[in-house]
Every structure is written in structure tokens, then in C-alpha cells.
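Deliverable D5.2: sample structural annotation.
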Amino acid sequence: MRPGGCSGRGYCLIAYPQTRGGLCRMDKQIHFIVTGERGQIRSFAVSRKTLKIIFGVCCFLVFGSGFGWFSSMENLALRQRLAAMQKDLAVTVALNTSMQARTAKQEQEQQALLNASLADLKHKSQVIESVLASVGVNLEVRESKKGAGGPFTRMPQGSYEGLTLKVDHYLDTIQSVPLGAPVRGTITSRFGERLDPINGQPAFHSGVDIRNDSGAKIVAPADGVVVANGYDNGHGNFIEINHGNRFQTRYLHLQQDFVKQGDTVARGQVIGLVGNSGRSTGPHLHYEIRYRDKLIDPVKFIQVNSRSAAVAAK
């Protein structure tokens, strides 16, 4: 049996506290004895402080290794999350690009439709302008000088809003304009100077005479309100209509009237029948138009249908 209880081949390490005077007591160093199988003995001493340092270093290394492993795992998880976020971001960017492309295409289509509508609206406004100009109707929009204040910005002439405003004004005006003939027939006496058909004297004719058979239907040439109807010896049965925008029409020598004062009439509505009542030489309709309280020639209003068709066909 070798010292320290070691036997066999190899080395045996024995550690014991340093002793003095044959008594064993703890000291500040620990001796390590290493023996070989041939009996060689080697010894070395290590202080307790050094052992503590070695133990502390070992603990630090173990703790540092664990912390490093934990940090590397957490870093891996963060990288995976970052990769997922980058993938989601790429998908979002692709969707946004696709939406922008679709929006741009829709805007182009809407602009094309707007341009087509603008061209059509401009053409229609030109037709209305031509028609109303041919009958001498001034379509210039009047601007009141009694506004509440603020800068005035005129609507651009080529804009959709400007054309819409213009056409709305035109349509409002044209609803009041007596367009077309109130009855089919032949004009036998025009507006202005003529020889009176009864006494043969020079006279002023305030309208036009349209010959047709008794009982032929007479229609309103525009929307309006009946302001007068009745009978007198000169006019026979008559109707007077206010169409608004300072237009008025009169219908004389009727066989019968179908409307009375206060009635609202629509363009094309039958209002009476051709007759020979009053101071008349035969069945016909005497038709008058007043604009701004002045008598005007109805012929250009009667002929406006053919003019508007010609303009629209251009």
C-alpha cells in the first residue's frame, strides 16, 4: 500500500494541509503530492487564495459560456423575427405598388371619360348657343353688383365646371324659349307691315298667321303658366302664356281653349284648337311672341328646329 491509499500503476495525488511540529493544522497553503508507479514523488503547494481565484475563474467561464449560449439563442430568435418582418414588408410594398398601379389606371380611365364628357358637353353647348343666337336670345350670364363681398374668380371657360354651369344656364333658358311651330300649317301672313286682309289698308301685323283646318291641335312651344284666356271681338278665343325669362306667347282666333288662367303647361302640351273666331277671314292661328316686353318675329323661332338639327349633325 502506497501513501495516501493509492496502489497499482500510475500516479496518485495526495493533498494535505501543511503541518508543523508533528501536529496537523490548517495553513494558508495546500500541498499536492504526486507519486508515480516507480516511486517517484513530486509535490507542490497551492495557496488557498490561488485556489479561490482558480475556482472563481472556472465559475466565470462556466457562467460566461451559459450567458453566451443564451445570448446567441436570443440573437437567433431576433434574426428570425427580423427576417419575417422583412418578408412582410416586402409583401406590403408589393401590394402598395399594385394598388398604385391600379389607381393610376383608374385615374387614366376616369380622365378619358371626363374628356369625352367634356367634348360632348362642349358640342351640346355650341348647339344650344347656335340655336338661341339664331333667335336673338342673349345668353350672357348677368352678375349682380349687390354681392356680399369677397374676390370674384370667373369660372375657367374650358373647364368641366365652367361648361356645366354654362349648359345649366342654357338649359334653364331654353326651357323658356318658345321653339318650333305651335301648329302645323302654312304661314299666310308674316310679322311686320302688311295690307289688312279685311279693309286692305296698310297695317302692322304683330305676329304670324298659320293656316290649317279648324280643329287642328295647338301645342305649347315651351313650358309656362297661363296668364290670360278668354274671348273678345278682335282676337276671338285667345290664350296668353308666360314662359319665364321674359318670354310670352299669344294664340288668337281659337275654336276652343283647353287651359285657363293659372294653369301650368309643358312643352308639347295641347292647349287649344285652330278656329275662325273674332276678326278673321278663315281658319288659322295668329301666333305672337314677346321678349322683354317687345314683339318679335316668330318665324325664326318656328324655323329653329331645322337649324338645330343641321348644327347637331356637324
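Annotation notes: Residues 186-312 form a domain with the Glucose Permease (Domain IIA) fold (CATH 2.70.70.10). Residues 97 and 116 are 29 Å apart (CA to CA).
The annotation will be released with the project's public dataset once the embargo ends.
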